[in-house]
Amino acid sequence: MAAPMRNVDEIRNRVILGEFGVKNVHSTDFPGNYPEYDDTWNQKKFQKNFRIDIIQMDENSMEFDMVGIDAAIANAFRRILLAEVPTMAVEKVFIYNNTSIIQDEILAHRLGLIPIKADPRLFEYRNADDEEGTEIDTIQLQLKVKCTRNPRASKDSSDPSELYINHMVYSRDMKWVPIGNQADVFGEAGIAPVHGDILLAQLRPGQELDIVMHCVKGIGKDHAKFSPVATASYRLLPEITLLQPVKGEMAERLKRCFSPGVIELESIEGTPVAKVVNSRLDTCSREVLRHDDLKNLVKLGRVRDHFIFSVESTGILAPDILVSEAIKVLMAKCRKFLNELDSVEME
Amino acid sequence: MAGTEETRKPVLEMVQAEGTDEGCVTFVLHDEDHTLGNSLRYMVMKNPDVEFCGYSITHPSESKINFRIQTRGGLPAVEPFRKGLNDLTEVCQYVLDTFEARVKEFSDREAAMD
């Protein structure tokens, strides 16, 4: 067990999870608040304390730690990941023929939510008054499906897959129609929905769909269909401190109060003694505070500047690219206001 | 200039009450919300010359924030505002560089293990 932290350090660095509330939530390390600390912004000190550790990364999701940054900035990154990183999605749906039982607007809504695997950095935003769309700001997709009866089905089958042809409309039926020079730019791979097995509508013989779609670039703030992440979230690193040695049967009960893998029992002189092995795995349910004999033996808290980010992408862009783009969006916002300040100063 | 330029939507306005010096200014930032507001407030508060810094969203239906800075000792409020924006840009640049370096390191390590 580490020596107990000085009270001031604890207020500055830890969020305390109590039985009835959470204390020390806000960051207080601003210049002038603590007489013996110099809290002025110092880029060198920040760079010395800051680190990023990538825990796990694959093509759709990643988990990484950001240590040494304040919640205000970490939250800004999270908000930008959700709402301000642009993607391409279906915006205008021209329905030439829809004789299915799915209503036009329902179908159009569903088409808008399908993630389209097109790199948004290669496109520009469409101008507000532009109706047609050019090759630099629009992707055209077409969905043309007609359901017919299968002449070769046996007389007494009742399985729709056997009786009908094209009775399920999937997102893989959305075909890309290149405009202008898009065929050269995207050529081989083409543009298509990320997943081909999303069911859009079901048809029966005689029903057909003839739809043309225009995809434009947008951000999640405008409509959630443009959000590039399945979700992006962060949590603070939990910290569990045992105030006294916990032995025997109480140690067993203590172990069960936390998520599996957090507390291990090691045998010292025959009796099991509880030891905190991996507080990162804890979900902070504060179960231990429900037991009167255990609640005074532990101190639960979170480290205020250690963020465990979890980013899951919808498949349009890789998660590490999404995080890079989010940071660039925040920089662009700052630069926009700096330029505005400079242009005002000029006048 | 007046005739040929079309009316642009304002991006940043500065409001100063009558009779006060340049040290107390409210900046109105259009098309912004807590994303930039809170992070910029944090960076400006880290400046020891700033006596007060806060932001508020005037109405949830309008996407603009009132960002107020009051300085100590008569320093013009534009100074800590500019410094806050510059510091935030520097932080983002360092975070971006660190992140990209670590991602590259991670993927190199993964490729080496296969």
Automatic annotation (TrEMBL), chain B:
Coiled-coil stretches noted in the UniProt entry, renumbered to this chain: none
Pfam families (alphabetical): RNA_pol_L_2
Subcellular location as annotated: Nucleus
Gene3D superfamilies attached to this UniProt entry: RNA polymerase, RBP11-like subunit
Keyword entries, A-Z: DNA-directed RNA polymerase, Nucleus, Transcription
Domain DNA-directed RNA polymerase RBP11-like dimerisation: 24-97
Molecular function, one GO term: DNA-directed RNA polymerase activity
Record GO cellular component, one term: RNA polymerase I complex
Matching InterPro entries: RBP11-like (IPR036603), RBP11-like_dimer (IPR009025), RNA_pol_Rpb11_13-16kDa_CS (IPR008193), RNAP_AC19 (IPR033898), Rpo11-like (IPR022905)
GO BP annotations listed: cartilage development; embryonic viscerocranium morphogenesis; ribosome biogenesis; transcription by RNA polymerase III; transcription elongation by RNA polymerase I
The family this protein is said to belong to: Belongs to the archaeal Rpo11/eukaryotic RPB11/RPC19 RNA polymerase subunit family.
Name of the featured protein: DNA-directed RNA polymerases I and III subunit RPAC2
Gene: POLR1D
